[in-house]
């Protein structure tokens, strides 16, 4: 019997990359997994078929749709808010509507989904949001909106840990460094620069991040809350 047998798990943003690795990990460990996606229909359907999980379209930029999805999922043992985007470029040239959309996906959805999940979450539930080492360290120009959004999650976790702690519900931030996904391919143009900041000079694997998420979701982590968990090859050290 898997470590998460019988648990209901919702992953927001699970069709590709780190989210897909999280879906695979929890499904392999026996959970009933539902994951959301926005654009990657084929990848989502393939992952659902592979893992026996349920894929549903929910745009993380749409607050009311996210809240409805969380509510309709019913009591959730583990909520993972993984969906996130980055916008690169000169802050003076960026479209303010695009920046606001980033903030809806990266900040508003983690907040509203966490609060909505907590309404029905059983005692001992787990909330895990996907931050970034860029919430601690932003060593290059052109990514201020992303850094802003990921550091905001630190306040989210610190605050909601106080609200939900009395019910034994934990909330934690996982802060990856460079992870090999479509968003940050290991053979991309930033490879050498990123590796120059790191002690372990490679991109991480999505499965390594999923392992940290699984530990935070499990019974050994019941005393861990309101905290940031960095997995970055010492990018931020
Ligand atoms: P990818 O771009 O590879 O995958 C993003 C996932 O999020 C996809 O499943 C995508 O679904 C989903 N998603 C994006 N926008 C939305 C939306 N509006 N509504 C619903 N789902 C959405 O990203 P990664 O796997 O690399 O990143 C995942 C998380 O990890 C993000 O929060 C990111 O900021 C964070 N992170 C990543 C790092 C890295 O180096 N890769 C480093 C640090 C943090 P779909 O395609 O179906 O829309």
Description:
InterPro entries: KR_dom, NAD(P)-bd_dom_sf, SDR_fam. Belongs to the short-chain dehydrogenases/reductases (SDR) family. This is SDR family oxidoreductase. The chain is of the alpha/beta class and 237 residues long. The chain has one domain: Rossmann fold, CATH 3.40.50. Helix content is 41%, strand content 15%. α1 crosses α7 (206-217) and α4 packs parallel to α5. The longest helix has 25 residues, at 96-120. It starts with 7 loop residues before the first strand and ends in a 6-residue tail after the last strand. The model has no long low-confidence stretch (mean pLDDT 98). NADPH dihydro-nicotinamide-adenine-dinucleotide phosphate (NDP) is lined by residues 13-19, 36-40, 44, 59-61, 82-85, 105, 130, 132, 176, 178-179, 181-184.
Give a brief outline of the structure.
With 237 residues, this protein is an alpha/beta fold. The chain is built from seven helices and seven strands; from the N terminus they run βαβαβαβαβαβααβ. α1 packs across α7, α3 packs parallel to α4 and α4 runs parallel beside α5.
The first-to-last residue Cα distance is: 38 Å
One letter per element, helices H and strands E, the order comes to EHEHEHEHEHEHHE
Radius of gyration: 17 Å
Helix proportion range:
40-55%
By DSSP, the count of extended strands is 7
Largest sheet: spatial strand order: 3-2-1-4-5-6-7
Major sheet: 7 strands, parallel
Class from helix and strand fractions: alpha/beta
Name the ligand types. Answer: NADPH dihydro-nicotinamide-adenine-dinucleotide phosphate
Average of per-residue pLDDT values: 98
- Unreliable residue runs: none
CATH class: Alpha Beta
**Which outline best applies?**
globular
Number of individual domains: 1
How many helices? The count is 7
CATH superfamily: NAD(P)-binding Rossmann-like Domain
CATH topology: Rossmann fold
């Amino acid at each position: 019997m898997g470590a998460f047998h019988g648990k209901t798990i919702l992953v927001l943003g699970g069709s590709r990359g780190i989210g897909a690795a999280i879906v695979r990990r929890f499904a392999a460990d026996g959970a009933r997994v539902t994951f959301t996606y926005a654009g990657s229909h084929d990848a989502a359907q393939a992952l659902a078929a592979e893992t026996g999980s349920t894929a549903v379209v929910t745009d993380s930029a749409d607050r009311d749709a996210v809240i409805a999805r969380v509510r309709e999922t019913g009591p959730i043992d583990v909520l993972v808010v993984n969906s996130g985007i980055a916008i690169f470029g000169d802050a003076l040239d960026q479209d303010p509507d695009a920046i606001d959309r980033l903030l809806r996906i990266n900040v508003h959805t983690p907040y509203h989904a966490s609060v909505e999940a907590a309404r029905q979450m059983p005692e001992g539930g787990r909330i895990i949001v996907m931050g970034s080492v860029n919430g601690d360290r932003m060593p290059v120009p052109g990514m201020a909106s992303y850094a802003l959004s990921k550091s905001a999650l630190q306040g989210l976790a610190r605050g909601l840990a106080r609200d939900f702690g009395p019910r034994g519900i934990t909330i934690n931030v996982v802060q990856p460094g460079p992870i090999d996904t479509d968003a940050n391919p290991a053979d991309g143009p930033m490879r050498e620069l990123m590796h120059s900041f790191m002690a372990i000079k490679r991109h991480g694997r999505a499965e390594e991040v999923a392992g940290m998420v699984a530990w935070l979701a499990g019974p050994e982590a019941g005393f861990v809350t309101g905290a940031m968990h960095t997995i970055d090859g010492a990018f931020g050290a």
